[in-house]
Structure formats: structure tokens, C-alpha cells
Amino acid sequence: MINVQNVSKTFKLNKQQKKELQTTASSINAVNGVSFQCTPGRIYSLLGPNGAGKTTTLRMIATILQTTSGEIHVCDYSVNEKPSLVRSKIGFLTGSTNLYDRLSPGEIVEYFAKLHGMEKSLYTERMDMLFTQLGIHEFSKKRIGQMSTGMKQKVSIARSMIHDPEVVIFDEPTSGLDVITANNIIELIRQCKDEGKTVIFSSHIMSEVDLLCDDLAIISKGDLVYQNTMDNFRAEFSDISLTEAFIRVVQDSKTLQNDPTL
Amino acid sequence: MKTIITVFKKEVLDTLRDRRTLMSAIVMPALLMPFLLYGMTKITSFIMEKEENKKLKIGLLEAPTDFAGLLDTAKFEIINGVTLETGRDQILADSLDAMIGFASNYGDRINTMKSGKVNMWYKSTNIKVKSRLSDIIDDYESKILDNRITELNLTKGAIDPIDLIRYDIAPKNEQIGQTVGGFLPYIFIAFCFMGCMYPALDLITGEKERGTIETLLTVPASKFNILLGKVFTIALVGLSAALMTILGLAVAVKFLPDMPEDILEALGNIIGIKFVLMLFAMLIPLSIFFAGVISAMVVRAKSFKEAQSIVTPMSFLVIIPAVIALLPGIKLDWVTVFIPIANVALASKEIVAGTIQPIHYIITVATLIILALFSVGISYRQFSKEGMIL
């Protein structure tokens, strides 16, 4: 269970960032008063254009970033008060295959299992199960630097799932991946749902969202501009495609955000 | 503690598989000393021997015949037709090694028991030319002097009344401490810093550049423990670099053939268990201090390149206090004992010389421990800032 209540995030800008963003403001609001809830056994999708605040929101849920205001609870633990307990409950996976090039899959997964405080007997068994399931055994002795993107992504999955997390956070998990590797991720997300885990993932690919999610939220310029179940979203925009519906929601929100009378 | 060990073991394994770090922390320091000692000694003696036996081309102006006769034709070639005007140009163009000119009244003055002027033109960049010709002129002068002593019916003591005999009673170790003892710590410190530099870039900035930091921060381990695991790895590599320098030195002393006796004796006296242990008690906190400082500096860098540009100027700051130990007259006292890096270099020098005061040594180690803790604290402060690590 993830409970996000009126969460905001403000980043202070240094000189270089001000120059890059062409602004004189000393800070920028990446997320403004966002609230939503993700329940176990369902897939929650966070949609939005680039720079909307999706990754910032997911990073706050994962305790990588601290909230400026508002509350986030993961499995009833506050991310600000009990970050370690929250981290023990979550698995975090991004589309970029961030691994250590000089280590083998076994060494990496073992490293993360130990950092999660798992006993050797437990992680050995779970590692074997994950490696069999993902087909990692055949290249488990190879170093990451010698692997293809697909192989690396499988190792990333094993690393994120080794401690059998109750909550899984996917940040644009298929971005930049080939069709086969992306399909593996989609299968994994489905499997997590079937296992009763709470799943949240960010994306801007509507076909993926259509295929997977039960609930969705659209975020634009840091504001949560739409929130509903997937079924209701389909029904509400039945006359147009989902991509068109997404674009319409974002454009409508921009019009509202830019309206000085509001 | 478990997290620190887990991170430390993983980082050591990762670092050992990094060729660049291995080269800078293990191979380079291990080879430097044997190369410096054997290679440089051999090269220097080869060059000196070559210069000593080289046939020098000499121009003589108005030289007495007895002087020209002193020049061994196997080692000197007298070039005829050289004038004061052309000689200088020929020396500058390297077609002539030197020119010796006797004053026009030289003969008269010598014959009337006065001193005669002799001029010598040479290039100081041509090693050995000056000393070889000076030796010849000194011999020539001695002969004239001997003749005068006989002619005047004097003894040598009459014109050289003081027979000064110098006795250097400084113990051998103190003499070594003054010379080699100042130079060695400079090398240990430099390699310790360089050894820390590459793993710090890889373990801190590399983690950001690869994007692995994000997943590392989602594990239920404290950032402080993760950082400590990294800092200890960086310090270990720095320490290994210093250790490899000593090992290379020991190997060079023990196994390299044809080493000059005085160098062997000097180094043999230095590399004792006491020196190594006392040095390492200082190098351990020093390497943690370096690891902490470098980590704190590179946390803000987003790429290897940026991190390198931050750390490289730091190496000058490290070298400056290390060079202090090389200066004559600078000793470990109640001021220098508190100057980091300089205190290590000065203490090493005094350990070799056997003149170190226990209280100075204890304060040096204590100062380094405090600095190490302080640098780790600063590093953690930087590492905790979300803006720094993402």
C-alpha cells in the first residue's frame, strides 16, 4: 500500500541550473500537492510528459528524495520517519540498466541481498529461483560489462526483486529497451500484480499503460491533473484513442495552469 | 558494521578488477623505487663515465708549452687556429668544448713570483668539462707551487699553515635522515594520495555517472555506513600504494645487482620493522584523511572528467607541505607537528634519523586521527545532501 497525501517537492536552484532553465527564481516546484493511493494487487500508473514530476514523485516514495511538504506512507511506514523500514519494503527499477560493469550477476544480486540484511540461505534460494525464472544462470559468471542490454535488464530485475518486496516501483522501466526486453518487464509487472504486490510505474507510453494498469494518474508540471481507474478513463474518452485522451488531459491542464484568472 | 563490511568487500573486489586503479596503486609504486634506484643510478653512472672518457676539444690561447704538454692526447684534442672571437661561438655551437686563454703577461708574472691570469670559457650545461679542465689547471698550479717552494727554500707548511681535518660525528642514521629521510616520505605521501584519487573517482563519482547510486540509496542501509565502506576501500588502496613503494624499495635493495654500496647501506638502515610500523601508524589515518577529503570533493561532480578537474589541483596542496620536509633546518616542533602532511614527512625524517621525540610522534598521529574523523564527517555531510548525490 502506498499513500501519498498532499506532497510537494521544491528544488533550490544554483547559478548553473538557473542559467540552464533560463529563470531568475531561486527554487522550482517539481511536485505540487499531489495525493493518490496505490493498493496491493493493483497496478497504478503515473503518466505525464517529460519533466512533469513523475520521477521526483517516485523518488520521494522510494526515500531517495525527501518531501518538502506532505506525507507519504508505504506499508503504513512514513517515508520521512521510518525511511529504512520503507526501503526494506520496496523494490526500485528504472529503464536504464544501472549496474556495476566489473561484477557478475551473482555478485551484484548477492551484494544487494546482503544490503537488505538477508541471510545467506534465504538469498541463495531466492537468487536461484529468480535466475531460473529470468534465464540468468547461463550467463551468471559473465561480467556485466560484457553483456547485452537485455541481459543487464534481467540482472536489474533480479537485483530489485531479491528481497521479495511488497511494493515495486518502476520508473519508465521500458524506456530505451528493445521489444523483447520491454516485454520481459511487462511480464514482470503483471507477475507482481498476480503475487498481490503493490505496483506503481511511470510511463508516457499509452499502449503499455492500456495493457497493464488498473488505476492511473496524469501529472503535468508537477500537478496531478487527472486520476481515475483505467476502466473509467477508457469510458470517459471512448470516442478517441488513449494517446489522444492523454494529450487532451495534459493540454487542458496546461490551459488551466496558464490561466491567470485561476 | 555488517553494511560497512559488505560495501567494503564489494568495493575492494570491484577495485581489484579495475586496471587503471591497479596500475596507479600497485604497479606504478612498486616499480618506481627499483627504477629510480637501479635505473637512475645506472643511467647516471653511464652518462658520467661517457663524459669522463669523452675526448674534449680544447682551444688554447697563448698557452705555455709545459701546460699544453699536460693535456693527455687520448682525452683532449687541441684545436688550432682558435681565436678569442671565434672560440666563444664555437663553444656555443658545440664544435668546441672549452677554451683556455693565458694572459699576455702570464709568463713574466709567473717568472717574477706573481700570479698569472688564466681564463676558461665553457658551457656549464656540458657536464664534466669544467671539472676535468679544472683538475688539469690545479695540477699545473701545484707544479708551479712546488717549484717556487724549492726555489725559495720553503716547506709546504710555510705557505699552508693550517692543516684542517674535519670529523663528521653525526650518526649514520642522522645523516641518512637528513638526506634520504626527507625524500622518501615525500614519495610515500604522493603515492598514498594518488592511490586514493582513482578509487575515489570510481566509487563516488563513478557511482553517480553510471546511475547506480539511485538503486544503492533504496536499500535499508544507512548512508553513513555505505560511505564508510567506500572510504575504507579508498583508504586501503592509498595505503597499498604507499606499502608497494616500500616493498619496491626493499626488493630493490635486496635483489638488484651492482647497486652502489653507500645507497645500499643507507636504505638498509631505513627499512627496518620499527620504521615501517611507525610510518604505517601515520599513513593509516593519513590515507583515511585523504579518502575523506577527496570523497567530499568529488561528491558534487557529475562526471569523471569534472571530478578529475576538482581533484587535480588538490594534489598541489598535498605536495606543498610534503616539500617542507625537504627544506633544510625545518624540524618537527610544536608548530609543525600540527601541520597535516608536513608532520608526517618531518616525523618520517626524524624516525629514520632516530631523533624523534615520542610526544611529537604521538601528537602527529593524534592530529592525523582527528583530521581523518573530521574529513569523514565532512564527506558524510556532502554525501547526505540529495542535491549532491543525484
Explained architecture:
The complex is a heterodimer of chains A (262) and B (390). In chain A, helix 4 (105-115) packs across helix 5 (120-134), helix 4 (105-115) runs parallel beside helix 6 and helix 6 runs parallel beside helix 7 (179-194). Chain A has one domain (2-258): 3-Layer(aba) Sandwich (Rossmann fold), CATH 3.40.50. Chain A has 262 residues and is of the alpha/beta class. Chain A has helices at 15-21, 54-61, 83-89, 105-115, 120-134, 149-161, 179-194, 206-212, 230-236, 242-258; strands at residues 2-12, 27-38, 43-47, 69-74, 77-78, 90-94, 167-171, 198-203, 215-220, 223-229. The radius of gyration of chain A is 19 Å and the shape is globular. Chain B is mainly alpha-helical and 390 residues long. Chain B folds into two domains: 2-38 and 173-389, no CATH class; 56-159, 3-Layer(aba) Sandwich (D-Maltodextrin-Binding Protein, domain 2), CATH 3.40.190.10. Chain B is built from 16 helices and four strands. The model of chain B has no long low-confidence stretch (mean pLDDT 86). Classes of the chains: A alpha/beta (262), B mainly alpha (390).
CA(first)-CA(last) distance of chain A: 34 Å
- Listing every helix as H and every strand as E from the N terminus to the C terminus, the arrangement of chain B reads HHEHEHEHEHHHHHHHHHHH
Reported for the largest beta sheet of chain A, the result is: 6 strands, mixed
Radius of gyration of chain B: 30 Å
Question: SSE order of chain A in H/E notation?
Answer: EHEEHEEHEHHHEHEHEEHH
Blueprint of the fold:
The complex is a heterodimer of chains A (262) and B (390).
Chain A: E1 2-12, H1 15-21, E2 27-38, E3 43-47, H2 54-61, E4 69-74, E5 77-78, H3 83-89, E6 90-94, H4 105-115, H5 120-134, H6 149-161, E7 167-171, H7 179-194, E8 198-203, H8 206-212, E9 215-220, E10 223-229, H9 230-236, H10 242-258
Parallel strand pairs in A: 3-8, 3-9, 6-7, 7-8
Antiparallel strand pairs in A: 1-2, 1-4, 4-5, 9-10
Helix pairs in contact in A: 4-5, 4-6, 5-6, 6-7
Chain B: H1 2-16, H2 19-53, E1 56-61, H3 65-68, E2 76-79, H4 84-92, E3 98-102, H5 106-111, E4 118-122, H6 129-151, H7 156-159, H8 172-210, H9 212-216, H10 223-255, H11 261-270, H12 273-298, H13 304-324, H14 342-353, H15 358-384, H16 386-389
Parallel strand pairs in B: 1-2, 1-3
Antiparallel strand pairs in B: 3-4
Helix pairs in contact in B: 1-10, 2-8, 2-10, 8-10, 8-11, 8-12, 8-13, 8-14, 10-12, 10-15, 12-14, 12-15, 13-14
